[in-house]
């Protein structure tokens, strides 16, 4: 049976206690480029979001899980988005919040758990990821987990008055 627990981390559902963590993440301008966000979020809106986070992925078409270390420290977030049960696909995004926790394998382990979850529980046929051309650590992470670059969206995102390409990565499950 699949578990959302790995060797060094586990994935869990959002809790009301995550308000401050989510507020910090969603209002970090350095993260906005990855999430295509342009404006800050209020605590009120994030509180409402958390109150609805229990809704089923089949209803809201997304799933956000918290990445925690085995000693329960909150490390980051992993999301499934644009879930499409008709075509058995979803997008996936991941963020390890603090720079000092990056490069330690937490993201790799979380992504593998989500890949397994997608196959086993959601019966996905494929996952995809959108990665900025200059996000080399994400390119390395997704390629290490079997994702293949299948396209380049030229000058896709405007960041600090510079257009950046975005890579489209895909993992097609072998059943």
TrEMBL record:
Gene3D superfamilies reported for this sequence: 3.40.630.30
Domain of life: Bacteria
Classification via PROSITE patterns: GNAT
Database matches in CDD domains: NAT_SF
Domain called N-acetyltransferase: residue spans: 9-169
Transmembrane segments: none
InterPro entries in UniProt: Acyl_CoA_acyltransferase, GNAT_dom
GO MF annotations in UniProt: acyltransferase activity, transferring groups other than amino-acyl groups
Pfam annotation, one family: Acetyltransf_3
Full protein name: GNAT family N-acetyltransferase
């Amino acid at each position: 049976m699949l578990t959302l627990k790995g060797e060094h981390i586990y994935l869990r559902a959002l809790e009301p206690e995550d308000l401050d963590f989510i507020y910090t993440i969603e209002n970090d301008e350095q993260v906005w480029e990855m999430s295509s966000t342009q404006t800050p979020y209020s605590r009120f809106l994030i509180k409402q979001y958390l109150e609805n986070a229990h809704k089923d992925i089949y209803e809201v078409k997304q799933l956000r899980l918290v990445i925690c270390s085995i000693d329960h420290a909150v490390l980051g977030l992993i999301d499934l988005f644009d879930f499409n049960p008709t075509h058995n696909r979803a997008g996936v995004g991941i963020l390890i919040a603090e720079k000092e926790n990056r490069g330690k394998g937490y993201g790799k382990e979380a992504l593998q758990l989500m890949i397994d979850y997608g196959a086993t529980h959601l019966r996905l046929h494929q996952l995809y990821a959108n990665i900025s051309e200059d996000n080399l650590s994400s390119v390395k992470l997704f390629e290490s987990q079997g994702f293949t670059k299948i396209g380049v969206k030229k000058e896709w995102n405007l960041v600090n008055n510079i257009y950046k390409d975005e890579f489209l990565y895909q993992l097609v499950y072998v059943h």
